[in-house]
Protein 1
Amino acid sequence: MANAWTFEGQPAALGAGTVTLVEGSSFCVSSWNGDIRPGGPQGVYHADTRLLSRWELRVDDAPIEPLQVLAGEPYHAAFLGRTQPRPGRAESTLMVVRDRYVGGGLREDLLLRNLSDESAGCVVDVHIGSDIADLFEVKINRVRHVPDVDLVPEGTSLRVYSLSRARGAMIRTADALAVPGLLGFRVAVPARGEWRATLQVNPIIDGEESQAWFSTRHPVERAGPAVRLAAWQRHGPYVVTDHPGLARTLRRSKEDLGSLRLYEPGPPDEPPTIAAGAPWFMTLFGRDSLLTSWMALPLDQSPALGTLRRLARLQGTKVDPLSEEEPGKIPHELRFGARSGVSPHGGACYYGSVDATPLYVVLLAELRRWGIHREAVEELMPHADAALSWIGEYGERAGPIEGLLWYRRKTDKGLVNQGWKDSFDGVNFADGTLARAPIALAEAQGYVYAAYIARSHFAHEAGDHETERCYTERACSLRRMFNELFWLPERGCYAVGLDREGRPIDSVASNMGHCLWTGIADEDKAEYVAWHLLSEEMFTGFGVRTIASSMGAYNPMSYHNGSVWPHDNALIVSGLMRYGFVAEAQRVAMGLLDAAEAFGGRLPELFCGFDRKEFPVPVPYPTSCSPQAWAAASPVQITRALLRFDPWIPYGRLWVAPVLPEEFGELRITGLPLAGGRVNLVVWGSGETKLSGLPPEIEVHCAPRPSVSTLVGHHDQFSSEP
């Protein structure tokens, strides 16, 4: 783990034809026929450890020919295949079905179906290998040769041990011959009959074996993940629309967000958190989990509460340069890898992000605005205040200009860049020169501005007028400073940030769209920002690029320098709508939904930034995570933005003024969670809107919420939070 945070390349590509199954902190990457082949990133993973790096099925020493993969739930797939032809036959008569369930390990139900009129005698072998590799080692393709992993037969099962015996796996089955690296079955499949076997991979963590969640001890439908997913699908809002692509994308988003929920050991009613994405980020990430929870509020508010509570427990309490922990700071990433040397219940925390801390306050305020978990929100207020204290005591003092939020890594083992564009080359000048830290990012100032406004509203509700005035003044001061220092009049846009000398980093980049979302941008500058975002240099037809094509660092196949990120675009749509640029917001939204349709309804983490005029379909980015949390939440947020649905329940108000594109036709949402109840919303093609199920004390405003800051501090008129 020593160098885990400093990797400056990109993850190993999974390759074409791979299948990824996900459940909580567990996942499996395999080839199309179900085999896990050694030498690459494929494997069975749990707690940031690759338990198995080989899992290959052979019948009579020959591989299975793939026929089809039947994708079920995110944790389940059935791999259909056939064996080589039987002796004396031209075609195969032996079908193979591998029914696989992932979660806390793996369960695989094997079925051989004999389609001939003669009994088939065969040898079925499962070849097994393991390197007990840390996820980071696999991710960057730097797995060391590990001669200290033993595969020890125990009866009909195999035990996989690392040298320390702290981590490994137990592969359990019945009626098998177990030898090191192999489980074998000698079977006779009856004519027109079947043979079945079940193999279960149980993880060993800290020397203790735990049951895979889809255990053979109970039916699959009664396993914890199946029960939770069924409840998620049953109780969440239901959307009906005339636009089939939107309906399909929203269904897939809901399913993916359900699969990425993380449940910590504890009370059964403890709300979940959200993992950042599969395969490499199946853990809690401060920035990703907070923004995903914010965007997913129309689906369910429980992940927001779970994320806030979990991050509060991990909030910094001391100064540690190696982990970059500081009092009040919100973590960037939590890991449990085999090389971390920590218990999976504790995890290794890294704090190297500048934006998770203000976003913590922003999400807490948004949860309050939806009128949910009021007591829990109040209990978390001390953590919000600690986060705001970190901004003033550490973040603002890290750079040359006071009053702004800066970052600079504490040692050479930390991330060089600590905003959402956190690759080593993600922050650069217009000529392509890399910016040098300390750096004050434009969007991070917007997040702080929104956090200050949020805190002033909390104080207003509590009757604490001194704190209210303090944070209102801080917000106004930051906004003035931001618009003076970050605005580039010669370009008509905001700088990406300021460098160590206080110079504007003059790239034309998507970061300024976040400044519209948070409301820190001056009204007279927003029109220029909107023009840039929709210019040919930035808008591809499928979404807004991270930087303009005229910039020196532009590369549409790069991670952060010309690609398109769905979550970035969702916040841009929200920002454009906030400042009244309806047509522009609709254009970006429809482009992104077209991209989602091309990806089968599932938006990936990012895709290449080629222009739609050049290539009529979006070009995938090879190592993009999928499913990925904030990409999955983006269609939900875009739909909310187009509905202009803005609750402010503590003040008894709700703004809703839909501006749906004509292609949407009629839109019906049933069971939208709000104010402790369920609301139904119908929007007809004409724009006529009907709400039902709303508490009678809530006043509905059929107009967009007043946008930004000319009335900061006037809590009786509107909210200035994102």
Protein 2
Amino acid sequence: MTGTVIFDPLIPWPVLAIVAAIAVAGVVLALWRGLSGWALRGLAALVVIAALSGPVYQVEDRAPLTDIVLMIEDESASQTLSDRADQTAQATKELAVEIESRDNTELRRIRVGDGDGDEGTQVMAALNDALAEEPRARIAGILVVSDGIVHDADQAPNLPAPMHLLQTGRTTDWDRRLVVRNAPAFAIIDEPVTLTLRVEDSGAAPTGASTAPLEISVDGAEAEQFTIPIGVDVELPITLPHGGRNVIQFTVPEAEGELTDRNNTALIQMNGVRDRLRVLLVSGEPHPGGRTWRNLLKSDSSVDLVHFTILRPPEKQDGVPVDELSLIAFPTRELFLEKINDFDLIIFDRYKRRGILPAIYLDNVTNYINEGGAVLVAAGPDFASADSIFRSPLAPILPAQPTARVIEERYVPMVTDLGHRHPVTTDLGDSDNWGAWLRQIDVNHRTGEVLMTGVDDRPLLVLNRVGEGRVALLASDHAWLWSRGFEGGGPQLELLRRLAHWMMKEPELEEEALWAEANGQVMRIIRQTLGDEVGPVTVTRPNGETVETTLDEVSPGRFEAQYFGPEIGLYRLQEGEQSTVIGLGPAAPKEFERTIATAEVLEPVTAELRGGTVRLEEGLPSIRNVRAGRPASGRGWIGLTPRNAYETRDVTQAGLLPPWLVLLLAGGFLLAGWLREGR
């Protein structure tokens, strides 16, 4: 029970102030005139003014509320190192007993694990949530049992009470970690890209070690061994062996006595791209679609195009002096003997033998294909003639043989069942809405895959692999009708783009491929095939364990499955002869970027209300009560601030000056003053 006097004036305070001023003026006037009853008049005025101010005696029935202590227990990954988990469990157990035994005190235990994704330890987020649920006026103290490695210290709230860090870890702890300073997302194939690495020792590292071993593995292959200095940035040139995703793993073997090897590995996933794709386009007799291939290739900024159109064959004898011709001579020897291997693709667009390219040059083109080159033949009527390019050393590598018949009739190109499974022709749209072509060269299929057909299901687009290279035959010169919008047009640009890039071995257009796409710890496994079914994919985890995953067909030729990787690291995938690797999550998560226990991160927060840090290896601190604003920590002790919070259950009020007493006192003082002045 508590009692206090409060005022509830009967008239507004400004009016009461005016009345008081008039009363004071009257008393001063009486004193100036020498009236002996001025004091009694003043007392009467004082009684009236006091009555008008409405004094009330208020009594509150209060119930004391308990103080609340918040104890945040760090259970993040870095707390599993060494014996920190045992330190935390022992300290929180003893602290809970001591706090709960204190009078008028409650304990709130808050456990904090790893943040979502790779956010690290989110102690301040947990503290903000706890303060939002508890009355701040009752918080007597905040205890954080942690190694001090907190990743959201910048989100610290305004603290209602002192905060203390009870720090786990040992002064003898030390750790070695591998840091990748820079790693581009893309690099040019067969050209070195420089990565900057650094090996750092932290904590009580042993003296005398100046170098560390480094292992480098590409796509899970056998690692190469190197030795690099410790504490120095090392520039390391890396050459990507192939296009698409390259997974590079750097590993520093675990040293004796270090806290963990989780930060000794770095996984870099880098996409290999070609610097410039070089294409040689040789056009024969001009025709309405003569610029189709040129426009397509020139629109791609990654393609360097060398284009020759043969306008003056050797048999053309028109008497024009050579020095008056504006066209340059066709550098056949330079292109087809000396620099042929510099090209990624050679396109013969309606080319026929006219004596310009001798047989030895075309024979060199065959060798170029077997060694990994690519040739595309866009056939016109010339392909069916006696001068056909088929009747040359290129014949053995061409996938179809002309019958010498040119079909001049309307037809709509159709994608075959195999074509619906091939990346070049899959998902091109609804063929019912495509425009017609008006010419097709009749050919007999010899080898390779027929992806499109024309008149009476005759082969229209045939692809084949020869040796290490690739060959394609398009048995029509009317693809340009689609680009002109004839009868609604068709997907000419996408078809020819895919065709050209398949021949230049772009990884995303491989018809037999296995790859995976990562989203956090979940990977989407994708198998592209021309077959009707695939076997299960064998997943090899970073720890060496294997598990098989069954794939489901989601579209023709495409099989997929979702797989959750329980560990962070490098996963190997195998299905038949197809294999790939993928890294899930960061090789060294944020929790392991800094592993040595420290008070530096939380020191600005604990110092706000004069809290402190105690190392648990030195023993558990005692707990004291301290007043607000006083130092809340010292050698071997930490302080809590009692809040003396209460709940008001009932309030009663009683007037101090009843009306009859006011009337009696005021009248008595006035009468006494009058009698004194009139004696």
Protein 3
Amino acid sequence: MILALSIRDFVLIDRLDIEPGSGFTALTGETGAGKSIILDALALTLGAPADRALIRAGAEQASVAAEFAALPGHPIWDVLAEHGFEASPDETLTLKRVVRASGPARAFINDQPVSAALLAEAGETLVEIHGQHAASALMRPSSHRKLLDLFAGNEALLDACAEAHAARLAALETRERLESETEEALRTREWLAGAVEELGALAPQAGEAGSLTETRTRLMQSERVTEAIAEAEEALADAEIETALSKASRAAERICRLPGFDGADHPLAHAARAAAEALERALIETGEAEAAIAALESLVEHDTSALESAEARLFALRAVARKHMVDPDLLPDVLETLQERLNLVEAGEDALIRARKAESAANAAWHAAAEKLTVARKAAACQLEKAIVKELAPLKLGRAVIRVSVTPLGDDGGAHGADRVEFDAETNPGAGFGPLRKIASGGELARVSLALKCALAEAGSAGTLIFDEADQGVGGAVAAAIGERLIRLGRTRQVFAITHSPQVAAAARSQWLVEKGRGKSGGTRLRGLDESDRQEEIARMLSGAEITEEARAAAGRLLEDV
């Protein structure tokens, strides 16, 4: 519902702030006072086309902002989420439109810039405007299916149909993919068989190319390794290092055994013992070095055939890898993939047959779910037509017939079933049925909308309904009937009615008077009426320019009868 409406420099309105309440509110005032201007201002913030002519004379811009409260689960939150707009049901929503004398108009939701299209989409879920110049959701055939489903309570059937449709699409995708893959595989069967045979004979192993590269490199370097070992052995032999170290070690030992050195705690004695120990270690490590070189020599491979074999295998792997444009180490994966494709050719027909059967079953399941939805819709359509008939007669539309057509879409249906739903109208017998908006005219359009809203009960998401002169051209009992229906709608929604009918105004829970401002600035202003002011305004509506006591008394009776 609307919590607040703020209008600045809009046509005749200088500044206007409104905080409407719940229930049914009537907007009254003399012709030309500006009732329709307020409605136009609200329509602007709901996404209606912007025009610089809407800016009040002398102002640089016009702005309209409307603050709304919407409960969790309201469609507005899904609309905003689909557009990537961050908002929470814990906060209110403010829709704002600014029309500038220079530059394009701008739209905002909670002070964040948005497109006019998003503003209109959001506004459509929040407010319905019904009148001669307003095309509400009731007038658009694209919304009729949803309205009928809401009236019928078809949520569970819709969920089942959507689920069946999703399975149907998945089965279709699987079948088409298998057909494409099988067709492609059949075209390349000969090549596949040859490639699998070649790779199978080669039998590549994971990481084999890298291992062969290391082996080949090692074998190619064996001669250099042997030469280096020989050089090391020759150097050790020529230098007679072991003999020299042995002599030096014995000389150091003799020093340590001299009187005054053996066990003495003297720097010279310590140095002698350290020298002897170092020479002994050097002698030991020299022996270990000679043993290590000998071990290295024993491990050197001089296998020419092994080198040739490694090279041949490596070159074979690389050659096949080039054919498939992959790294040689990925050949096992290539073999697996090609084998799967070849298997698809050989067993593809069976898989395709299974996929076609699954698709047929999914189609049958969707048709069954759609048929249940169709049956429910047709039954609900009959109930809705009867409910509409009851509403039309008291509104002086007894000769009109509203038809709820449920026609098949066949295989063109989808998640919402296989039906096209349209509300058609015939306002005069024999005139033929046509779209609601084109058949109804003038005040009839708002009254048709009122009848439909009452018949549809809670169907539709908008929490605010606005009726623009639904009482045009009627009076007496018809106006009273309009008032009764507005009261009924006001029990669960916020309802506004722009009216010239005293009966409708008296039926409202609250009443606002739209009047021209006084003084040089003129303009339009709006004020809420208390009980005495309401009686005076309704008396004016009854009697005209001169308010009589009889009119005041009649106004009092109207207010008492509500």
